[in-house]
Amino acid sequence: MRARVRAERTRWTKQLDEATKWMVGNVETYAPTWPAAVLREMIGTYVAHARAVAISERGDNRKAELLTELTDPVWAVLGSRGWQRGPRRSASGGHHRDDGGRD
Predict the structure, then answer these.
(1) DSSP readout, 22-38?
(2) In 3D, which of 44, 10, 3, 50 has the Cα closest to residue 27?
(3) What is residue 101's DSSP assignment?
(4) C-alpha torsion angle, residues 3, 55, 71, 90 (rounded to 10)
(5) Can you list the pairs that 43-46 forms with residues at least 24 positions away whose Cβ atoms lie under 8 Å?
(6) Residue 102 Ramachandran class (φ > 0 left, ψ -120 to 50 alpha, else beta)
(7) Can you say whether the dihedral through the CA atoms of 21, 82, 75, 77 is positive or negative?
(8) Is 88 helix (H, G, I), strand (E, B) or coil?
(9) Model's pTM, two decimal places?
(10) First-last CA distance in the chain
(11) Are 47 and 23 in contact (CB under 8 A)?
(12) Rounded Cα gap, residues 70 and 54, in angstroms
């Protein structure tokens, strides 16, 4: 069982490394698409800091704590409905505003 848990932990660590590499390597592709300068700056700062944590010599547990501390406030802004860039389509094909009303 310990070997399986260790293998999963290694896999998760590798995924975090790959994800932060991808974010840094592609930030110029997706950051400019955010509608406000403050959001573009937020995502750029987040990406740089997340990668710095990932490549640091800290232990995996501390890296996970720091990545959570970095991610939670960004997710609160970018993961909320407030940043949606366009109308959502309902299952019936109609458009909905961000507040859930019909156009």
Answers:
(1) HHHHHHHHHGGGSSSHH
(2) 44
(3) -
(4) -80
(5) 43/74, 43/78, 46/70, 46/71, 46/74
(6) beta
(7) positive
(8) strand
(9) 0.70
(10) 55
(11) yes
(12) 12
Amino acid identity, position 23? M
The whole-angstrom separation of Cα 103 and Cα 98 is 10
Token pair for residue 24?
């840094």
Place of tokens 């993961």: 79
Q: What is the CA radius of gyration of the chain?
A: 18
User: Tens digit of pLDDT for each residue in 9-67?
Assistant: 999 999 999 999 999 999 999 888 888 999 999 999 999 999 999 999 999 999 999 99
What letter represents residue 56's amino acid?
S
